[in-house]
């Protein structure tokens, strides 16, 4: 049985890694997820590959292309997660685009999420104002839709945060995903505005790649989210990425949990 998203934050700060399903193949993805869970991840985001991932930088775009070329489909990702659930109960959330969910069918998609133990979903191209299009169906199946708050959302932060669920994904910087040398957004102010209206955990993602950055971001929020740096390791090592990914996550999770 899967654990709810809240479990990821029950012991304090959470480290949340992301990986693209099917890169280089789904059997490898399953091994990599288990390695991340063993290395100290508190919640894992699994990306369902999409042909036009508008929020992603080149690293994850290329991972999506590799995954799709390897024959990855949404249904095969569900089957991979079903297999994972026999080996770990770590909270899992999907990250994908609305087109994937829409064409699979909202009720069918969230029914499958419940069946395989997916606790939540992040949909970067789902505007807050249109969230209700699928929120009710997701709730019926106990799947939480994780809201994103970007630096440009300042006037809407408290509105978005007030009815959020699972956790809040705070975007560190303008632009798409990808490693950044420096994060300059006034994230303390954004986190402060969130705290005024909800006790829901808020984790920061986009651009984080080093233990120092992860520690800095988790120090002002409830956790750090890392994607591109892990996907880059998979691109470099392919099917042999299990040990490099495990060691990287161990270091990053250690930095977050030390707070």
Automatic annotation (TrEMBL):
Enzyme Commission identifier(s): 4.2.1.20
Leader peptide range in chain numbering: none
Query: Which top-level group of life is the source organism from?
Result: Bacteria
The pathway that the record names for this protein is:
Amino-acid biosynthesis; L-tryptophan biosynthesis; L-tryptophan from chorismate: step 5/5
Q: Which reaction does it catalyse?
A: (1S,2R)-1-C-(indol-3-yl)glycerol 3-phosphate + L-serine = D-glyceraldehyde 3-phosphate + L-tryptophan + H2O
For this protein, the record's PROSITE patterns field holds:
TRP_SYNTHASE_ALPHA (PS00167)
InterPro entries named in the record: Aldolase_TIM (IPR013785), RibuloseP-bd_barrel (IPR011060), Trp_synthase_alpha_AS (IPR018204), Trp_synthase_suA (IPR002028)
EC category: lyase
- Catalytic residues in the record: 45 (proton acceptor), 56 (proton acceptor)
Identify the keywords attached in UniProt to this record, alphabetized: Amino-acid biosynthesis, Aromatic amino acid biosynthesis, Lyase, Tryptophan biosynthesis
A GO-annotated cellular component:
cytosol
Q: Which GO terms describe its molecular function?
A: tryptophan synthase activity
Q: Magnesium: present as a keyword of the record?
A: no
Question: Which family is annotated?
Answer: Belongs to the TrpA family.
Biological role: The alpha subunit is responsible for the aldol cleavage of indoleglycerol phosphate to indole and glyceraldehyde 3-phosphate.
Q: Which NCBIfam families match?
A: trpA
Assembly notes: Tetramer of two alpha and two beta chains.
What is the protein's name according to its record?
Tryptophan synthase alpha chain
- State the encoding gene: trpA
């Amino acid at each position: 049985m899967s654990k709810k998203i809240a479990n990821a934050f029950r012991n304090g700060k959470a480290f949340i890694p992301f990986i693209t399903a099917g890169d280089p193949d789904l059997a490898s993805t399953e091994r990599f997820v288990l390695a991340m869970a063993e290395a100290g991840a508190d919640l894992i985001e699994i990306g369902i590959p999409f042909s036009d991932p508008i929020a992603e930088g080149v690293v994850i775009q290329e991972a999506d292309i590799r995954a799709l070329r390897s024959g990855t489909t949404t249904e095969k990702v569900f089957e991979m997660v079903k297999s994972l659930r026999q080996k770990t109960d770590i909270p899992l959330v999907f990250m994908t685009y609305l087109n994937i969910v829409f064409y699979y069918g909202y009720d069918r998609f969230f029914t499958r999420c419940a069946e395989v133990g997916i606790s939540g979903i992040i949909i970067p191209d789902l505007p807050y104002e249109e969230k209700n299009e699928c929120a009710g169906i997701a709730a019926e199946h106990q799947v939480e839709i994780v809201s994103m708050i970007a630096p440009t959302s300042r006037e809407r932060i408290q509105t978005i945060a007030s009815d959020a669920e699972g956790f809040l994904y705070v975007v560190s910087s303008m632009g798409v995903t990808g490693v950044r040398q420096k994060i300059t957004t006034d994230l303390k102010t954004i986190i402060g505005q969130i705290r005024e209206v909800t006790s829901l955990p808020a984790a920061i993602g986009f651009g984080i790649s080093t233990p120092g950055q992860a520690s800095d971001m988790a120090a002002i929020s409830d956790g750090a989210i890392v994607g591109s740096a892990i996907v880059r390791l998979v691109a470099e090592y392919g099917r042999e990425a299990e040990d490099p990914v495990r060691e990287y996550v161990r270091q990053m999770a250690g930095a977050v949990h030390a707070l």
